[in-house]
Amino acid sequence: MAARGSYAKGVARREEILESALDVIGRKGYQNASLKEIAEVVGVTPAALLHYFGSKEELFTAVLRKRDEHDGLEPSVLDAQDAVEGFLEVIRHNTQVPGLVALFSRLSVDAADPAHPAHDYFLERSERLRSTIAESFSSEQQRTTLDPDTLARIIQAASDGLQLQWMIDPTVDMPGIMAALIDALQPAAAKTTD
């Protein structure tokens, strides 16, 4: 019985660490958020953080998973219009948390190495995102000359590229540009039925 209570406390502490790290990185930025500061917010030592996550990279990967959990963009529960609006809402939200955008961008480059702790996360996340986008363009009314999977890759590539442009120049209107791109990619028949 004690093991269950101990396990539950460990899970709760891990969640507390993730929520605190999300907040600190969102406010201070990826480069300005130290393990020491995150640990202080939670009331543990940096060594305790590594006890729960193994490494700084594993902590940051778990932070991105937690961020995705908060965003809640799942294809099984969203219709085509809700999926597009949900995707644009995530992009709008990203403009409020530049530290998390920087973390995502930095880790995505590092995760190109198959041995990096975030490699599988980025593969899985990309597949989920493309699946959501492809599904929103797969109905008869939404069909374009491009197949939905190709279209999803183009939208994902544009979104990732816009994030980089926005990090360099915060005046870039990420949600506006993505909305215009998605609108341009929708066939005329789908636009008249909205």
Tell me the quaternary state: single chain
Number of strands: 0
Order of helices and strands: HHHHHHHHHH
Principal-axes geometry comes out as: elongated
Domain HTH tetR-type: 11-71
InterPro entries: Homeodomain-like_sf, HTH_TetR, Tet_transcr_reg_TetR-rel_C_sf
DNA-binding region: 34-53
Protein name: TetR/AcrR family transcriptional regulator
Describe this structure in words.
It holds the Pfam family TetR_N. Residues 11-71 form the HTH tetR-type domain. This protein is an all-alpha fold and 194 residues long. It has one domain: Orthogonal Bundle (Tetracycline Repressor, domain 2). It contains ten helices and no strands. The chain has helices at residues 2-28, 35-42, 46-53, 56-71, 80-94, 98-110, 119-136, 148-168, 174-185, 188-193. α3 (46-53) crosses α4 (56-71), α4 packs across α6 and α8 (148-168) runs antiparallel to α9 (174-185). The longest helix has 27 residues, at 2-28. The radius of gyration is 19 Å and the shape is elongated. It starts with a helix and ends with a helix. The mean pLDDT is 84.
Question: How would the blueprint of this fold be written?
Answer:
Elements: H1 2-28, H2 35-42, H3 46-53, H4 56-71, H5 80-94, H6 98-110, H7 119-136, H8 148-168, H9 174-185, H10 188-193
Helix pairs in contact: 1-2, 1-4, 1-6, 3-4, 4-6, 5-7, 5-9, 6-8, 7-8, 8-9
